[in-house]
Design a protein that fits this description.
Largest sheet: 6 strands, mixed
Radius of gyration: 26 Å
Distance between the termini: 91 Å
Shape: globular
Strand content: 15-25%
Strand order of the largest sheet: 14-15-16-21-22-25
Number of strands: 25
Oligomer: single chain
Helix content: 25-40%
Length: about 675
């Protein structure tokens, strides 16, 4: 018994020693490999993620390759020279000489590859153009930093506007971040420890000791995506969207950041029903994102997330396996597009105009108490129909112009609007909150069925466009109509396009052979001839009469309506006289009901496929392959304006008719906001 007890004790000691040795080795590995500490973890501190990201030096060849790909892809971006100095009213907002800055970045030294990425990313962001964005899966939203305190902008009965923690903040955070709530509970000062819920609704008097609007506008300088300052400001705050799988909650850019650059925030607050001024410091917590591949160490981190993948670069559509639309690969930009994306075959068959951002579309659920119930016939996916209590105001909540099949969207929109009319609706609210675009022809269809057949909706229910016609683009177009694209898969094939008189181009027509020369901001440029509509006849017959008088239609949102959403909103407002309402904006800043118009967006991988398929990859102006897991978005077609029909609509003014003030009882409650719009605007 004594001997057995001694052996058992000895075994326990040896086990303890082995465990301690293993722990010491693990600590040593983490110390020597900063990525090991966050590998296979769901939650980390931003500082630990940053330590991993900054541990990699710049690879000179890789850097040169990135800049060359971006530079040569920008030859297809229609807006480069316009964005050097945008016309009024956006001259102060858009003045980025992209080509000069890329030359600067090329010669500049950086402490790490991550620092290089930040500079390159923010340089593109300064365009304030949600189509022309550089994304690297290695860093962007690989870990997303969160706070449990999304903010809202409220107006009291005296008209005084203040920043608050959202009334629903704790409900959202506890449902979405349940496993991490204890970290924030324990970070509160002793008098508030464990009382995170009590911060919901609190007035925010200062952020890091300064006026909250200083933080709002500091973020607006780097957030990009929209030309208008007001729209970039609204991105700081929480909001909602009719998502493909249900109503979603956007926590806003204060409470959600795509890069691990901020460790904590100090908030000076006045809680609801309290006169006491209190200060709390909350840490950001970085959660491993949906776009990433797990890793255990630095080598796996780089290999799994930072190297080019099979879809990063273009392909030859006629290599034997992709000669039909049904076999095309998924676009690498899709995870960052701000609309649910269709299958590759749908994407090529029905053209898209969609905004890109460094954060994937949100999947946080709108709390049940805020969600509209009992949607009407026609409701499905991103399309939701409701009839308000006055029995005369119908609502179409449209979260995007994609998210379902093209045909389903056309059919559901028509069914829902016709049903509203049958139920007695004579006025319509179209809620496009956080609508990042989608199918171009769905935007045309919605315009057409609302207003009926007229010279602004038939045959052209959208806006005429142009594309850039540089030397390489001209060669692609010539090759596309000279036998290189027998199945009509290429954007540059003439069979997809119509002349300015809305008659379709014939097969084999070299439509870029005679480019239109322009001088923009002192630089020579070349564009295609003016292109007419590409959507009609539609797959379904539209009604012979208007479903609603456009003067009784309101286009409502938080200003963050982009791409195809902008095409719809602009034609409804400027051509048809529909009213436009933005909610939650600052009184002192002009609100824009939409932005980032474009005409058709695409990306490097798509353009590269056009180049590869036409056999032009070795042409000197063709971009090489990315060796990094990167995406470069562009505006491929640019829409002409309504008020100034020979100039791009992109930088023309889109002022909202009404800035609807939000109060604590209606903020982020779609139904309550709709009722207020019906009462105040219609």
């Amino acid at each position: 018994m004594v001997a057995g007890g001694f052996l058992s004790l000895l075994s326990t000691v040896f086990s303890a020693v082995r465990f301690a040795h293993a722990e010491t080795n693990a600590l040593a590995v983490r110390a020597s490999d900063p990525c090991a500490g966050i590998g296979n973890q769901t939650w980390s501190s931003p500082a630990d993620v940053r330590a991993c990201f900054t541990s990699f030096p710049v690879d000179a060849e890789e850097k040169a390759r990135i800049i060359e790909v971006v530079n040569k892809t920008l030859a297809f971006h229609t807006s480069v020279n316009y964005e050097k100095l945008a016309p009024a009213p956006f001259t102060l907002d858009v003045h980025e000489d992209l080509l000069a800055d890329l030359a600067r970045i090329s010669s500049q030294k950086y402490a790490s590859d991550f620092d290089l990425h930040i500079d390159l990313s923010r340089t593109l962001k300064r365009l304030n153009d949600g189509h022309c964005v550089y994304i690297n899966y290695c860093y962007d939203s690989l870990f997303t930093s969160y706070l449990p305190t999304p903010l809202v902008h409220l107006t009291d009965k005296f008209g005084i506007q203040t920043v608050h923690i959202a009334p629903e903040a704790f409900s959202v955070a506890s449902a979405e971040f349940g496993d991490e709530i204890k970290t924030w509970q324990n970070a509160l000062p002793d008098s508030l420890k464990g009382q995170l819920a009590s911060l919901s609704g609190a007035k925010v008097l200062a952020i890091n000791g300064l006026d909250p609007w200083l933080a709002v506008d500091a973020n607006a300088k780097i957030s990009g995506s929209f030309q208008g300052l007001a729209t970039r400001e609204l991105g700081f705050f929480s909001s909602y969207n009719a998502g493909a799988s249900g109503w979603t909650y956007n926590v806003g850019q204060f409470a959600q950041q795509s890069l691990p650059l901020t460790d904590s925030v100090k908030l000076t607050v006045q809680r609801v029903n309290s006169t006491k001024i209190e200060t709390v410091t909350l840490p950001y917590r970085a959660r491993f994102g949906t776009t990433g591949v797990k890793f255990a160490n630095s080598a796996e981190f780089r290999q799994n997330n930072c190297k080019a993948v099979s879809s990063t670069n273009g392909i030859n559509y006629y290599d034997g396996s992709t000669t039909k639309r049904s076999t095309l690969p998924v676009n690498p930009a899709n995870k960052f597009r701000q609309a649910p994306m269709p299958s590759p075959s749908e994407e090529r068959k029905h053209l898209l105009n969609v905004m890109l951002d460094l954060q994937p579309q949100t999947d946080v659920t709108l709390p049940p108490g805020l969600t509209p119930s009992d949607p009407l016939p026609g409701s499905s996916s991103v399309v939701q129909f409701h009839l308000l209590s006055d029995k005369k105001t119908g609502v179409l909540a449209l979260g995007s112009f994609s998210g379902d099949t093209y045909e389903n969207l056309l059919e559901n929109l028509l069914t829902g609007l016709q049903n509203l009319k049958k139920q007695g609706a004579t006025q319509l609210i179209v809620d496009v909150s956080n609508n990042g675009g989608g199918y171009i022809c769905v935007a045309h269809w919605l315009h057409r069925i609302i207003v009926g057949p007229k010279d602004t909706s038939d045959p052209q229910a959208g806006l005429d466009t142009e594309t850039r016609a540089g030397p390489l683009a001209q060669l692609i177009a010539k090759a596309a109509v000279s036998g290189k694209d027998p199945n009509g898969l290429l954007l540059y094939n003439s069979i997809s396009w119509s002349f300015a008189n809305n008659t379709y181009m014939p097969a084999g027509y070299d439509w870029l052979a005679e480019p239109v020369k322009k001088t923009i901001n002192g630089r020579q440029d070349a564009f295609s001839q003016r292109l007419g509509q590409e959507c009609q006849p539609f797959e379904f017959d539209p009604p012979a009469e208007a479903l609603f008088d456009p003067k009784n239609v309101v286009v409502l949102g938080n200003g963050r309506c982009a791409s195809s959403c902008s095409l719809f909103s602009i034609t409804m407002a400027k051509e048809e006289g529909a009213k436009t309402v933005v909610y939650g904006g600052r009184n002192s800043v002009s609100q824009q009901y939409c932005g980032t118009v474009g005409g058709q967006s695409t990306d490097y991988s798509t353009i590269d496929s056009e180049i590869v398929t036409t056999g032009l990859k070795d042409y000197p102006l063709a971009p090489p392959d990315f060796t990094t897991n990167s995406v470069q978005g562009i505006t491929w077609r640019l829409a002409f304006g309504v008020d100034k029909p020979n100039e791009p609509e992109e930088w023309q003014n889109h002022p909202a008719d009404v800035n609807l003030h939000l109060t604590a009882d209606i903020v982020n409650k779609p139904l309550a906001i709709w009722e207020q719009v019906a009462k105040q605007v219609l």
